[in-house]
Amino acid sequence: MFNDTITAISTKLGNSAISIIRVSGKDSISLVNSIFRGKDLTKVDSHTINYGYIKDGKEDIDEVLVSIMKSPRTYTKEDIVEINCHGGVSPTLKIFELLQEKGARKAEPGEFTKRAFLNGRIDLTEAEAVMDMINSKTDRSRKEALSGIEGNLRKYITTFRNKLKYILANIEVNIDYPEYYDIEEITKEDIKKVIEELEIDLKELIKKSEERQIIKNGIKTVIIGRPNVGKSSILNTLLKEDKAIVTDIEGTTRDIVEGSIIFDGIELSLIDTAGIRETDNIVEKIGVEKSLSLIDDANLIIVVLNGNEKLTENDIYILDKVKDKNPIIVLNKNDLEQKIDLKDYKFKHIVSTNTKEINGIDSLKEEIKKMFKLNEIEEDDYTYLTNDRQLFYAKKALNNLNDAKTSFNNDEPIDIIEIDLKSVFENLGNITGENYSEELLDELFANFCVGK
Length: 452
Ligand SMILES: Nc1nc2c(ncn2[C@@H]2O[C@H](COP(=O)(O)OP(=O)(O)OP(=O)(O)O)[C@@H](O)[C@H]2O)c(=O)[nH]1
Ligand SMILES: [Mg+2]
Description:
seven-stranded mixed β-sheet, Gyrase A, domain 2, binds guanosine-5'-triphosphate, binds magnesium ion, 15 helices, Rossmann fold, Four Helix Bundle (Hemerythrin (Met), subunit A)
């Protein structure tokens, strides 16, 4: 448990109906009580809401509701007080300052959640899920976050580690009592079987998790092509608004235009770019360079071609740039005669569209769904690794497991295998925060909101 008491404004500062100021730590109740006019808060029951005023000396500051939550059944496992005041900037800041004058320390970002972790109420995957919930914009990302908050990933990893613990215990017996040859024979087969099962499970988990990164992060999409093929028209059609300027003049779009849509429960963030061509115009040239630089950063590249014309040098230049990047090739303007010929290319995803008819780009939408297997994401299965940190350790664990299997197949001594299996155990423990470093915690919670 910590010695100091922390405070933060948990709501957004501005004009709103209510602000919530949070206090956590052993002095939180007495501290708030010293600036409260109403009941004696040190004597009220836990989990009660108390009406009164916050005062500065004799002067009332605001009319408030104060929630008292006593340790240990609280977010941080410490005593927590939440003051609901009116959501103006002045009352909120004044109360926040008063709390600090009385001895509370301004909380770091995510410090309440960090305490929940350090006090053993939640593990790291649950802490990360809290942040994911705060950042979630779609139904699917909300469900994913909730699954994490409910501890599903923690339970999965813990079960996994328990299986390993069982083998490790058996190996210890083998090392300590090698004379029981019979036991070793049985155990070796057992160990092999469990290692193989764990490997299959972990591989599957990693694969699933990588496919589902888009649920949280969305699909970063860039639309490229030479001028006048209809890139901005496609952006506007997807967004259902006239966000980018469309004209029949080549080089209409000079800078990038961004927008985002929720697409089948996934955020599709779209970037329309300047048409790529050889140009002497300095402004356009910068735009073209920017368009090209965005390719590397995207999850999805949509290359737009004009189906009504034969391939030009600029088209060929662009197709060459993306040929190893699995783009969707859009043959636009299919309301006109189709003259384009792609027989020299082997692209997997080619669709034909137009932006003049109501359903003219449905084929593009379908292709995106197919490419990212959006139809296959089961609605009720949200137990997987949700960020790079978790994936990093899972992959390390998988490597250790592979090493263990190889040693096993090579008939290496059992204590060599034991070392690899212990590493699997540790790396999985890093996911849940069984082992952690101060730096890791600092880095992780620095991305949190203040007051959470
Ligand atoms: N017939 C037909 N014309 C289209 C279609 N899509 C776009 N256009 C027209 O093509 C012209 C260029 O469209 P834009 O969307 O501005 O093209 P762009 O690729 O963004 O062009 P830049 O910004 O110059 O790179 C406009 O006159 C559009 O109305 C289509 O599907 N069919
Ligand atoms: Mg444009």
